[in-house]
Amino acid sequence: MRADERSPVRLRASSVPTAELGQFSPKRVAADERISCGPCSCVGVRTSKYTNGLCGLRNLGNTCYMNACLQCLLHTDPLVEYFMDGHHLQVMKQTGKRAPLAQSFAELIIQQQKRTRKVINPAMLKSTVAAKLPIFAGYNQQDAQEFLRFILDSLHEELNRITGRIPYEELKDIKGETDRRGSARWWTNHCNRNDSFLMEVFCGQLKSHVTCLWCGYLSKAFDPFMDLSLPLSGDSIEDCLMRFMEPESLQGSERFYCPECKAQVNSSRKLSVYRWPEVLVLHLKRFSFMGYGSKKLNVDVSFPGKLDLSRFTDPDNRDDLVYRLYGAVHHFGSSNGGHYTAGCMQQACDPSSSWFDFDDSHVRESSYQMQQGKSAYILFYKRM
């Protein structure tokens, strides 16, 4: 597996506004605290005062990829509370940003909560997205994961409470530094430029250890991620996580520059999750690209309704690592075409809540068992 296939999703440093710290300055977290940069109380909610409406989304022409992702976001309780309570308006007032995508997304949530329509037209949100990234301007089928990454990244940029410019600081290794101190140092550096509610909900921290195979020099990095792209391996999501965290060899063009050897050397890299986010998004890599063609991997991967991640994390951070599945994006068809749908719990915070399938404008009652199978493409888990 190539190194770039296992790299974490990063917030785009070059395009994220950066700046002087004001009322919403990021919290300088201690290493043993749960990741959080801002003051909003919506992050750790275990119950929600809002009941998600069961509304379909109109297909505007091959926009099932967008509708499936939006349904999962519309059933993410912390996001619903944040926008329904108007926290995005406070950030816009504080920063002076127009935030067109945030306003379009908020309007979608409001319409869903009103429940006056069985089907909502997401045309305003699509046009806002298209204005930001022209690839989404037409009506060709797009990849759901690419759309999800884009909308989360864009909402983060618009609702980033940091304004102005703070130069990016490239962190260097500190000999003998513990993982706990390194994690806190890297997170503080990230929060100096990035502080949004999207980060508080979706952002975790990935630990990378690269070891020189000549002298044994160890380089550490603690990068933020918004989702994890998992290789398909074994029969379960746990098997996929284990494969993701297996050591890999860095050779050839991927060789590591060792400051001790002062040369590009062969090395070994191991990834692990040092801190898990409040909402965990897992992307199953069902599409394999080879040369000029692509292939869909129709592998049946089981995933539990309740996922315990304690054995996949650092011993320092094993508290509260049980997650509940509340949403899934499904893809039916081949790599050359197909159809996306979503399955969601009506209330992610309520274990007794019913499951529903969302196929564009059509909504029907479903079950957790019906989410299983070869079609699952993106999974949404919330910390219990």
From TrEMBL:
Positions of the USP domain: 55-384
Gene Ontology biological-process entries: protein deubiquitination
Top-level division of the source organism's lineage: Eukaryota
SUPFAM superfamilies in UniProt: Cysteine proteinases
Family annotation (PROSITE patterns): USP_1, USP_3
Protein name in UniProt: USP domain-containing protein
Gene3D superfamilies: Cysteine proteinases
Listed Pfam families: UCH (PF00443)
InterPro entries documented for this protein: Papain-like_cys_pep_sf, Peptidase_C19_UCH, Ub_carboxyl-term_hydrolase, USP, USP_CS
GO molecular function: cysteine-type deubiquitinase activity
